Amino acid sequence: MRKPDHTGREKVCSDNVVSKAITMKVRKGLWSPEEDQKLINYMLEKGQGCWTDIARNAGLQRCGKSCRLRWINYLRPDLKRGAFSPQEQDIILHLHSILGNRWSQIAARLPGRTDNEIKNFWNSTIKKRLKSNMSDASITSPNDSSGDLSLDASTCISGGDGMFMSIHDHEIMTMCTDSCLTSRTTRTSSMHGTPMLMEGDLDQFGHLPPLNLDSSNCDTNNGFLNISGYGDVVEVPNMFGIETGITNPAVVNSVIEGDVNATIHHHVLDKKSTHVNHHFSGDSGGNIKVEELVGFGNHWPGDSFRVGDWDLEGFFANVSIPHFDF
DNA sequence: AAGCTATTCAACCGCCTTCGA
DNA sequence: CTCGAAGGCGGTTGAATAGCT
Q1: Is A15 near strand B, with its CB below 7 A from some atom of it?
Q2: Nearest alpha-carbon partner for A149 in A158, A119, A92
Q3: Are A322 and A239 in contact (CB under 8 A)?
Q4: Taking the complete model, does pTM exceed 0.85, yes or no?
Q5: Over the stretch A158-194, which tens digit does the pLDDT of each residue have?
């Protein structure tokens, strides 16, 4: 935290206007309760607009950028305060495995949370947990000789060298397993074959009904987990030797959900597959966007996403795909 | 109780993109 | 088409605080 700047100290705002002819004296540092109140009052009365105008009209000696940041990260009435729930943590971990450090994109999937909050949470808590988990895994998995302790969650999924890994921490295992399941299920969602889930299956909000991820159906003999839902059963590899209730359907759902306008195909994984990506054939002319894959079309009104025009190559570059031999 | 270290998180910085003149 | 202003974003900083010795 910055030192409270209650002394009235002023600085020149360096807000990408260094070369500007006009330099305005602005306060920096922590916001005082009075400043907060001014901004809240103004925002509630006038609503959002040009931040420079807001700063001026609200009687704040702050640059517009600072006002925007304060409002978005702290003063917004719809902000959720407090610790991240296990569900939120699951979602963050999974989305980060797909999107990387695109904090705003991740935040867009977590109502009431800000990109800054998620970024801080990741850099402090999750990174640390993944690292310690990796250390545990390297101790318990002599086969993993890669020595790659990348903090990326996808590494957690693949176990460093793509082989099975032993993870004892239940929560982390849940996260990683979710990532595995959703990654595989996501990939199966556009495979060749007959569509199993169509637009009509979506609810009035364009969301898929909750998936029943039934780990009791785990067929450990064949190394597969069965996920039932949408009148279909999707089989995914039981990478971690999961035996009992392991997962959080909300996480799976959050990732599998697609845009109401997108036709979502759901197929049974071909057990004979040796390489997952050999079976991945896009329905979008080979130019499937990540939004379609992970449900970014499922946003609320007014939200705009800037995931970008990732093609599959870009997408897979961000996702570690385990190699299986069945 | 005091000093030290680690962690948290609000805020800043600077780059990039978008938009309007 | 160009340019400048504003918004948006990810990375980084550093003070406050918690935890440990």
Answers
A1: yes
A2: A158
A3: yes
A4: no
A5: 333 322 233 333 333 333 333 333 333 333 232 222 2
Q: Which of A165, A164, A132, A162 is nearest to A149 (CA)?
A: A132
Whether A170 sits with its Cβ under 7 A from any strand C atom: the answer reads: no
State, as a whole number of angstroms, the distance between the CA of A4 and the C1' of C14: 12
Contact A258, A211 (CB under 8 A): no
Residue A199 DSSP class: G
Which residues on neighbouring strands pair with residue A212, listed in sequence order? A228
- Let me know: does A105 contact A307? Beta carbons within 8 Å: yes
Q: Which domains does chain A have, with CATH numbers?
A: 11-75 (1.10.10.60), 86-317 (no CATH)
Q: On chain C, which bases lie within 7 A of the protein's CB atoms?
A: 4-16
* Coil vs helix vs strand at A192: coil
Q: Which residue from A127, A139, A80 is spatially nearest to A107, judged by alpha carbons?
A: A80
For the CA of A124 and the C1' of C11, the distance in angstroms is: 14
- Fill in the DSSP letter of residue A191: -
